Amino acid sequence: MEKTDVLIAGLGPVGAALGVYLARSGVKVIVVEKTIEVYPMPRAAHLDHETMRLLDLAGGAVAVAGNSQPLSSYEFRNAKGDLLLGFRPPAALADTGWPYTSMFHQPTLEIAMREALTEEPDASVRLGVSLIGYTDGPDGVTVEVEGPDGKTQIAAKYLVGCDGGQSTVRRLAGIGLDDMGFDEPWLVIDTLLKDGTERLSTIGLQHCDPARPVTSMPMAPGRHRWEFMLLDGETPEDVMTDEAIEAMIAPFADPKSLSVERRAFYRFHAVFAERWRDGHVILAGDAAHQMPPFLGQGLCSGVRDAANLSWKLAAVVRGEADQALLDSFQPEREPHVRAITEMAVAMGKIVCTQDEALAAARDADMMQKPEAARFDATPALAGLASGVIAGGGAVAPCLRGEGGARPDVLLGMRPCLVGARRADAPADVPVDGGGMAVIALDEHEGEGEAPFRALLGDAPAMLVRPDRYVFGTGEPASLLAAWSAYLKTGRAEMRAAA
Ligand SMILES: Cc1cc2nc3c(=O)[nH]c(=O)nc-3n(C[C@H](O)[C@H](O)[C@H](O)COP(=O)(O)OP(=O)(O)OC[C@H]3O[C@@H](n4cnc5c(N)ncnc54)[C@H](O)[C@@H]3O)c2cc1C
Fold first, then answer.
1. Alpha-carbon distance values, 459 to 96, 192, 452, 475, 478 (Å)
2. Are residues 214 and 340 located together in one domain of the fold?
3. Residues 399/109, Cβ–Cβ less than 8 Å
4. What is d(CA 468, CA 54) in angstroms, rounded to the nearest whole number?
5. In this structure, what CATH number is given to the domain that contains residue 239?
6. Do residues 427 and 278 share a domain?
7. Which CA distances in Å does 333 have to 7, 224, 285, 300, 491?
8. Are 137 and 236 within one domain?
């Protein structure tokens, strides 16, 4: 029987990112994907800066950056056009080195990551092959797959279900869904702008009109996204026709100035898998959680899952960490995704109101504040609150090398000790686990090191986890000892470093 370290079911963005991270960490990976082409229907349009940084480590961000644009603002306006709520992402780059918002085209990202994965010698991609069953045993999983050559079995130390919202792995594992009770029907339309027009607007608009809630969003240059909520009693067929779509676009743009590229009906909902791990079987991305798209965070959350899981799986597979380290995956990721999902649901409730009286009360309530106070910065994303952290949890900044070099990419999925001064760094880094990198900030003056110094405060060093969360700050020797101990014991809840 064919053997591998990790079998990933599903080559969406999350399976692709996880595959690249693992393969670049020396883990043998097989990825099976039931379809041949990337998903053809409209989905993600927005990526945040943290995700761009993680996608850069998975070979996807450069393609996106070459074909995306930032939002100048994200505005929720009522039927009369009054501002209810708005966000203005800073125009400068974030401390990660990427724009706060990138409006993009999901297939561009997926194609780039597939290419990156295919180039990895430790990764094997099997398109047109579906996972149809598995048996978990004491030493790993026997996975049954079916493709053009029939059915076959593959032995893997771990199986990760990155197989999307309808996850077969989740169903086979008997894992139920916790439903947050949000469930709204929307038609999603991607359009191509004619005559070389790059954009209709730089503003992402939620038109909170009870007569028809509408989303209007720039995507990659030359494309524009429209989303129309179905009204009570309407069926998808009622609104899917060219005539119906033209009529719904007409109040916002000349329908003749664009053409419909893709259309799909979705129920926007918020669900969580009850367990994200069952023995040697793990769920990530949409298989583990789904949220409505009002914050543009579903894919971003899945990529954070992939980054979180990859270094832990790699350390366990290489024998450097106890299997219990994997127990920290859900406790770290779920509160983060839940907080974002709750924010997305709250925004969805503002947008999806179809009752005129409730909409009027909403408007009166939200417009009590002066207009300027209704604008905020981009919604703040939390760091990690619990798990394999020793007093850390913030997202680490990113150095910017000369001539656009990206030292973050060279670092790969390794932990990194960042010291204020070379003189403080231990000459010999006594740590098992993925090859600890060492960066001395005094050797990187003028390369964006100031945010690191702000996070360091008076501490001489910080340890950054491979997924770019700060593990802790303190004396280099005690940070290294704490990191080494955590990997060996796999204890999930940590105290502050000594
Ligand atoms: C309208 C809309 C707008 C959105 N906007 C945003 C946004 O702006 N920003 C954002 O971050 N997110 C957004 N999202 C969410 C985002 O698209 C998803 O979270 C993301 O695509 C999930 O990626 P994934 O890899 O987990 O799953 P998927 O992309 O669904 O990939 C799963 C893959 O698994 C394969 N598969 C399934 N079953 C099997 C099997 N048995 N064997 C083998 N392969 C299998 C499927 O063919 C598929 O390729 C949006 C979603 C929608 C619907």
1. 21, 52, 11, 7, 12
2. no
3. no
4. 8
5. 3.30.9.10
6. no
7. 21, 32, 11, 12, 16
8. no
Mutate to test the pocket of ligand 1, among 134, 163, 186, 301 (most ligand atoms within 8 A of CB): 163
Q: In this structure, is residue 426 part of a structural domain?
A: yes
Does some domain include residue 132?
A: yes
For residues 115 and 194, membership in a common domain is answered with no
Ligand 1 contact via 44 beta carbon (within 6 Å): yes
Which residues have CB under 8 Å from 386's CB, separation 6+?
A: 331, 332, 335, 493
Same domain, 94 and 228: yes
What's the structural domain count of the chain? 3
pTM, whole model, 2 decimals? 0.95
Which protein residue has the closest C-alpha to ligand 1 atom 2?
Answer: 43
Return the CATH number at 471: 3.40.30
The CATH number of whichever domain residue 117 belongs to comes to 3.50.50.60
* Same-domain pairing of 50 and 199: no
Give me the domain span that covers residue 359.
70-102+184-267+352-380
Which atom from ligand 1 is nearest to the alpha carbon of 300? 11
Inter-axis angle of helices 298-317 and 329-351, nearest 10? 180
Would you say the CB of residue 160 lies under 6 angstroms from ligand 1?
A: no
394 part of a folded domain? no
In angstroms, how far is CA 206 from the centroid of its own chain? 22
Q: How far is CA 290 from its chain centroid?
A: 11
Kindly state whether residues 10 and 23 are assigned to the same domain.
Answer: yes
Answer whether residue 121 is part of any domain. Answer: yes
Distance from C-alpha of 282 to C-alpha of 22, rounded to nearest angstrom? 14
Decide: 204 in ligand 1 pocket, CB within 6 A: no
Order of strands, sheet of 470-474, starting from the edge strand that comes earlier in the sequence: 437-440, 416-419, 461-464, 470-474
335 shares its domain with 362: no
Structure letter (DSSP) for residue 311: H
pLDDT tens for the chain, residues 1 to 498: 999 999 999 999 999 999 999 999 999 999 999 999 998 888 999 999 999 999 999 999 999 999 999 999 999 999 999 999 999 999 999 999 999 999 999 999 999 999 999 999 999 999 999 999 999 999 999 999 999 999 999 999 999 999 999 999 999 999 999 999 999 999 999 999 999 999 999 999 999 999 999 999 999 999 999 999 999 999 999 999 999 999 999 999 999 999 999 999 999 999 999 999 999 999 999 999 999 999 999 999 999 999 999 999 999 999 988 898 999 899 999 999 999 999 999 999 999 999 999 999 999 999 999 988 898 766 677 777 766 676 678 899 998 887 777 888 888 999 999 998 877 776 666 555 558 888 889 888 888 889 999 999 999 999 999 999 999 999 988 898 888 888 877 653 444 433
